[in-house]
């Protein structure tokens, strides 16, 4: 056990009379737990497939955004075997719009590995879980804890916020991660560790929120050092983020008189790998506005549409100039591209940036 209040890494701890009691948090959780579609009800045995699926989807993504995707996946692929057997395109289509597409590829590979190596049953052990595609240290801990009630140290963004406030951790993230993990280790009980992990997440999501924590409702209000200091919202401290330089490029929306649009599939590896796109030029910081159609997939009369499509990826913002052309029915698709009905685009694995490009291109018709 860590003794956080005497930790040398925590020299400015405000004076509080008590330590955070895991039992108080669990009692709060029993009354206020969030109802989430992937969460088992009290007394129910959790389904590891649901827990795993939700944890992968929730990486970098909000609960609100994940809910409809989770429901759709469960309808399409009700068990890990169904997901493992599904064609890759079906999985990518179901994922389209959720972002961070390498997760979908890993999800599919992981489902296959669970079926092939573990007979369709997720392992309960963190090391075995970590051997699965797309399952890192955090996700392995979360599955072991939530699905199997193993004592694992689960630290997501919500938990980081709660812990840095409880113990006034002034070391900035990400450098503070090992310290935070030790502090959470010191808090995690042997009994009901899975509920404890979810309770920490719920506390961070609903009470100990980033901008205005509702400390008066918090089960740990008497033990919280940041509350005693008077300004909990200043935690966690973070190193300044460096965002990448703006990249620019051109995107080409070609439509036919009979309602088809030209698309292609991106290479399987890399950014948006395996997803569908309207053809584009390379995206580069030094991209120079080009003559209409200079990097177009097909020779035609391209016209530049006003404005640009803006999108922000994790590591860089992107501006795409959109060009549009209208072609006769029966025009042959250039190599590597294909025509699909505009009315059927919802069934394509179009990432969000490409939805914006297509919408911009069709509006400009
Ligand atoms: S008392 Fe306030 S700052 Fe401290 S853990 Fe609770 S909600 Fe967060």
UniProtKB/TrEMBL annotation:
Keyword Kinase listed? The answer is no
Question: Mind telling me what this protein is named?
Answer: Adenine DNA glycosylase
| Entry function | Adenine glycosylase active on G-A mispairs. MutY also corrects error-prone DNA synthesis past GO lesions which are due to the oxidatively damaged form of guanine: 7,8-dihydro-8-oxoguanine (8-oxo-dGTP).
Q: Which PANTHER family match?
A: ADENINE DNA GLYCOSYLASE (PTHR42944:SF1)
Cofactor(s) this protein requires: [4Fe-4S] cluster
What does the record note about the cofactor? Binds 1 [4Fe-4S] cluster.
Keyword Ligase attributed: no
Q: Which GO terms describe its biological process?
A: base-excision repair; mismatch repair
Membership in a protein family: Belongs to the Nth/MutY family.
């Amino acid at each position: 056990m860590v003794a956080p209040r005497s930790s040398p890494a925590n020299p400015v701890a405000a004076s509080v009379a008590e330590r955070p009691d895991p039992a108080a948090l669990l009692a709060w959780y029993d009354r206020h737990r969030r109802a989430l579609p992937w969460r088992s009800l009290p007394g129910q045995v959790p389904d590891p497939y649901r827990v795993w699926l939700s944890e992968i989807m929730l990486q970098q993504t909000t609960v609100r955004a994940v809910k409809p995707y989770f429901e759709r996946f469960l309808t399409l692929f009700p068990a890990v075997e169904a997901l493992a057997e599904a064609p890759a395109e079906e999985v990518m289509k179901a994922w389209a719009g959720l972002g961070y597409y390498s997760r979908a590829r890993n999800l599919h590979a992981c489902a296959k590995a669970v079926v092939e190596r573990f007979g369709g049953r997720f392992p309960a052990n963190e090391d075995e879980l970590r051997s699965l595609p797309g399952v890192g240290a955090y996700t392995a801990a979360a599955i072991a804890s939530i699905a199997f009630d193993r004592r694992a140290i689960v630290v997501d963004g919500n938990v980081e916020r709660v812990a840095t406030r409880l113990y006034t951790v002034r070391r900035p993230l990400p450098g503070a991660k090992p310290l935070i993990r030790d502090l959470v280790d010191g808090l995690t009980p042997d009994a009901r560790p899975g509920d404890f992990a979810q309770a920490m997440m719920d506390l961070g999501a609903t009470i100990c929120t980033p901008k205005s924590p509702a400390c008066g409702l918090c089960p740990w209000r008497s033990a919280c050092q940041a509350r005693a200091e008077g300004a909990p919202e200043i935690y966690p401290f973070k190193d300044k983020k460096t965002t990448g330089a703006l990249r620019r490029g051109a995107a080409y929306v070609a439509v036919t008189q009979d309602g088809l649009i030209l698309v292609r599939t991106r290479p399987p590896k890399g950014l948006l790998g395996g997803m569908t796109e309207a053809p584009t030029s390379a995206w580069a910081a030094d991209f120079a506005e080009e003559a209409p159609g200079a990097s177009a997939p097909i020779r035609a009369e391209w016209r530049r549409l006003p404005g640009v499509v803006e999108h922000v990826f994790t590591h860089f913002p992107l501006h795409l100039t959109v060009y549009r052309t209208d072609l006769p029915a029966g025009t042959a698709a250039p190599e590597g591209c294909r025509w699909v009905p505009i009315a059927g685009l919802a069934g394509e694995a179009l990432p969000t940036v490409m939805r914006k490009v297509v919408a911009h291109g069709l509006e400009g018709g």
